[in-house]
Design goal:
The protein has a five-stranded mixed β-sheet with strand order 1-2-3-4-5, with helices on both faces. A hairpin with a 6-residue loop joins strand 11 and strand 12. By secondary structure, the chain is an alpha/beta fold. The protein folds into two domains: 183 residues, Metallo-beta-lactamase, Chain A (4-Layer Sandwich), CATH 3.60.15.10; 58 residues, Orthogonal Bundle (Arc Repressor Mutant, subunit A), CATH 1.10.10.10. It is 31% helix and 25% strand.
């Protein structure tokens, strides 16, 4: 007997940060939740409403985090469906918002989801775990075909790695990311992602052997061959690595601000 349904409606917002577009997931049966409505694009949101109507009534709209490519269309979708918006509790700043805390449970028709607080990409980032179906909706914590940008100060590399380690301990069979295709080998994908970040951190640390440098100055050598359009975002991730290393006492910050310099210890 079918106890749940999963539908993907991809938003028409492809780009260097969004890949083929934002994934809007519809999950449940009889009653459903919509995860990450995506941008404020009327045609996309009406496609979501139509797809949800094939399965059941929209009981709630969930957002993994506050970035516009995931949440901009949320209020409009609540108008179209009459469903409440559920977000991380510190972002629940509108009347009628449902505040979500770590380990809160959300009913989705005949099944339920568990909110997992996974900061790092953003301080309010949530993943949603379907325990019975062994699925994890990962938002921008884990992406398919690329890596997540960590943009300080709201993004934090240490928290990001801790969140990856936390979800690695969950018994799931499939990761459903905020961008790209579903990931059917969660253990291997998470191990590869953690190893990639550790290797990049080692490269960043080695780059300071010759003395003080700005994180932005490391980007051309660390990201040689990458498209020009992604380099500003890569610079933020390098900065996040430097801030993590400084917090651990492995680099020494010299001043602060957008042109902050770090020095070897």
């Amino acid at each position: 007997m079918l106890t749940t349904s999963l539908t993907l409606v991809r938003a028409p917002n492809p780009g260097p940060l969004t890949g083929p577009g934002t994934n809007t997931w519809i999950f449940g049966l009889d009653e459903v939740v919509v995860i990450d409505p995506g941008p404020l694009d009327e045609e996309h949101l009406r496609r979501v409403v139509d797809a949800a109507a094939q399965v059941g009534r929209v009981a709630a709209v969930l957002c993994t985090h506050h970035h516009e490519d995931h949440q901009e269309g949320a209020l409009r979708l609540t108008e179209l469906t009459g469903a409440p918006l559920a977000v991380f509790h510190r972002r629940a700043d509108r009347v009628g918002n449902l505040p979500l805390h770590d380990q809160d449970r959300i009913l989705a028709g005949r099944t339920e989801l568990v909110a997992i607080h996974t900061p790092g990409h953003s301080s309010d980032h949530l993943c949603f775990l379907a325990e019975r179906e062994r699925l994890l909706f990962t938002g921008d914590l884990v992406l398919s075909g690329t890596t997540s940008v960590i943009w300080p100060p709201d993004g934090d590399m240490g928290q990001y790695l801790d969140s990856l380690a936390r979800v690695s301990e969950l018994a799931v069979d499939r990761l459903l990311p905020g961008h790209g295709e579903p990931i059917d080998n969660p253990g291997a994908a998470l191990e590869t992602l953690i190893r990639h970040r550790q290797e990049r951190e080692a490269e960043v640390l080695r780059a300071f052997r010759d003395g003080p440098r700005r994180p932005a100055d490391l980007v051309p050598e660390l990201y040689a061959g990458y498209p020009e359009e992604v380099l500003p975002y890569a610079g933020q991730t390098v900065l996040a690595h430097c801030l993590k290393l400084a917090a651990e006492g492995r680099l020494r910050p010299l001043g602060d601000g957008p042109d902050q310099v770090f020095a070897p210890v």
